[in-house]
């Protein structure tokens, strides 16, 4: 692989990645290769820049301190941090990724917030690449160079890995612990109840029994009854009737189909039984409900 060509291809990609509630814009993603005497003058960025060193070493000068960055290490310059860099008399290669973070939602504190907190609070200095960010950078270069199917999304995934593994290394060296919430699946009973409710709604035209739901869910009838009772306070039959009633109201309110057709569509053997059901559940027949709704609207 031609490293210079791979870097050129990688740097041309327009990349945006997401971590939880953040969108990360990749401003550049490239390789710098230098030999002999060289100097990068004092400058700053409004974004974060990750500097990884696979080969050689160099002197990094900040306004308040300086340090040598060596092979197998990296450092991160935060927004507004002025820095300059000078050769240390040998061949030097640096992998660089520059990005900014845009927060989409302030209501929740997730991993993205922790990552940003680490980057903002950590002192700029050399960090060993404990978790292999450079390995992922090299894979990104290969993907950009060969451009096989799926390469673009693979590079976005690798960019996330580069950033996360760098932050993990910073936390490791500072022996810092962070606590935060992450999105979790619903509790098992919530998940099962949602499936039960959806099954009833999808099959509301049938004469559903608890055994039908139990067979679909691969649970016992007792388990179905317990889940529904726990979540609604109703028996299974009462809950089925509740959903059937809501659908009947929707059809009476939003359509012009006859009450007989509604009765058929909801699985009643006749309009009479539908009228009896509606009156028992609601207190008056469906015809009166439809007329009262029309008067309101």
UniProtKB/TrEMBL annotation:
InterPro entries (UniProt xref): AraC-bd, Homeodomain-like_sf, HTH_AraC, HTH_AraC-typ_CS, RmlC-like_jellyroll, RmlC_Cupin_sf
Q: Name one Pfam family in it.
A: HTH_18
Q: Any idea which UniProt keywords this protein has?
A: DNA-binding, Transcription, Transcription regulation
Query: Any idea which GO molecular function terms this record carries?
Result: DNA-binding transcription factor activity; sequence-specific DNA binding
Domain HTH araC/xylS-type span(s) in chain numbering: 194-292
Organism, as annotated: Thermoanaerobacter italicus (strain DSM 9252 / Ab9)
Q: What is this protein called?
A: Transcriptional regulator, AraC family
């Amino acid at each position: 692989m031609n490293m210079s060509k791979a870097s050129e291809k990688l740097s041309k990609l327009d990349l945006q990645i997401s971590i939880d509630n953040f969108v990360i814009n990749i401003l550049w993603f490239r390789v710098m290769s230098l030999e002999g005497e060289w100097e990068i003058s004092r400058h700053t960025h409004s974004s974060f820049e990750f500097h990884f060193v696979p080969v050689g070493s160099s002197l990094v000068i900040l306004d308040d301190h300086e340090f040598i960055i060596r092979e197998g290490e990296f450092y991160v310059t935060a927004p507004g941090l002025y820095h300059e860099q000078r050769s240390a008399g040998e061949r030097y290669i640096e992998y660089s990724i520059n990005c900014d973070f845009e927060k989409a939602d302030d209501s929740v504190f997730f991993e993205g917030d922790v990552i940003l907190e680490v980057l903002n609070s950590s002192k700029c200095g050399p960090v060993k690449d404990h978790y292999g960010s450079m390995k992922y950078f090299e894979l990104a270069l290969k993907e950009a160079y060969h451009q096989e199917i799926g390469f673009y999304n693979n590079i976005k995934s690798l960019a996330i890995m580069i950033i996360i593994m760098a932050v993990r290394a910073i936390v490791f060296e500072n022996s810092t612990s962070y606590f935060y919430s992450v999105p979790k699946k619903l509790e098992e009973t919530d998940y099962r109840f949602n499936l039960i409710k959806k099954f009833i709604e999808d099959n509301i035209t049938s004469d559903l029994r608890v055994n039908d739901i139990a067979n679909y869910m691969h649970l016992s009838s007792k388990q179905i009854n317990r889940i529904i009772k726990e979540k609604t306070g109703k028996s299974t039959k009462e809950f089925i009737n509740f959903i059937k009633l809501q659908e009947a109201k929707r059809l009476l309110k939003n359509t012009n189909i006859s009450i007989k057709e509604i009765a058929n569509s909801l699985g009643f053997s006749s309009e009479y039984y539908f009228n009896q059901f509606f009156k028992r559940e609601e207190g008056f027949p469906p015809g009166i409900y439809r007329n009262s709704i029309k008067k309101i609207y």
